[in-house]
């Protein structure tokens, strides 16, 4: 699978394999993070599967991934949501940010221009793919923030920024 390399402003700058883009020092590439909320305002969290090559077993947003070069981000995010969790939701992009983080456990690097999308999921049966997802949990935002403060190492390095943009987008 190829990812879309981008410049600092998020403009396309070529493509590269997922493995090569995540090899140190990492190549800046397009990614997306989806955060789903329910009617009570709780956040659907995902614990990444143990077999993930980057940040396994850490808690993070509902799902994330990479669009193929030239693929619309919202389309790729909707597809990934179906693949990872077996659900559909109307998604709205609420912002972007850049980050770089090395995983000391695997030696892989995330260097991403991340598009944050939010959606609402009321009811429906979740069907997590065990190759992608270790566990899922609906968390009240206040409880989630307390958990992140108490044990920041239990969450992916990008999640705090995803949550901040998602909450800002929900409240605007």
Please describe what this structure looks like.
The chain has 172 residues and is of the alpha+beta class. The chain has four helices and nine strands, in the order E-E-H-E-E-E-E-H-E-E-E-H-H. The protein has helices at 18-21, 73-85, 141-150, 159-170; strands spanning 2-6, 12-17, 29-37, 43-48, 59-60, 63-65, 91-102, 109-120, 133-139. The chain has a four-stranded mixed β-sheet, sandwiched between helices. It has a three-stranded antiparallel β-sheet with strand order 5-4-9. Strands 1-2 form a two-stranded antiparallel ribbon.
How are the secondary structure elements laid out?
Blueprint: E1 2-6, E2 12-17, H1 18-21, E3 29-37, E4 43-48, E5 59-60, E6 63-65, H2 73-85, E7 91-102, E8 109-120, E9 133-139, H3 141-150, H4 159-170
In short:
The chain is of the alpha+beta class and 172 residues long. The chain has helices spanning 18-21, 73-85, 141-150, 159-170, and strands at residues 2-6, 12-17, 29-37, 43-48, 59-60, 63-65, 91-102, 109-120, 133-139. 31% of the residues are buried.
For the biggest β-sheet, the strand order reads 6-3-8-7
Query: How far apart are the first and last residues' alpha carbons, in Å?
Result: 36 Å
Q: Using the 3D structure, state the CATH architecture.
A: Alpha-Beta Complex
Strand runs, count: 9
Supply the helix-strand structural class: alpha+beta
Mean pLDDT over the full residue set: 95
Give me the number of helical elements: 4
CATH superfamily: Nucleoside Triphosphate Pyrophosphohydrolase
The total number of structural domains is: 1
């Amino acid at each position: 699978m190829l990812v879309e390399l981008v410049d600092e402003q998020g403009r396309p700058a070529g493509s590269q394999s997922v493995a090569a883009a995540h090899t140190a020092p990492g190549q800046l590439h397009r990614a997306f993070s989806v955060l789903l909320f329910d009617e009570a305002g709780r956040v659907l969290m995902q614990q990444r599967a143990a077999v993930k090559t980057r940040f396994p077993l850490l808690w993070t947003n509902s799902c994330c991934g990479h669009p193929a070069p030239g693929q619309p981000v919202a389309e790729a995010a909707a597809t990934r949501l179906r693949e990872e969790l077996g659900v559909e939701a109307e998604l709205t992009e609420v912002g972007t940010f850049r980050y770089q983080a090395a995983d000391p456990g695997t030696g892989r690097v995330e260097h991403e221009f991340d598009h944050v999308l939010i959606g609402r999921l009321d009811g429906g049966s979740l069907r997590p793919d065990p190759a992608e997802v270790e566990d899922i949990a609906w968390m009240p935002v206040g409880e989630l923030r307390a958990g992140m403060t108490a044990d920041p190492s239990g969450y992916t390095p990008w999640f705090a920024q995803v949550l901040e943009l998602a909450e800002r987008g929900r409240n605007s």
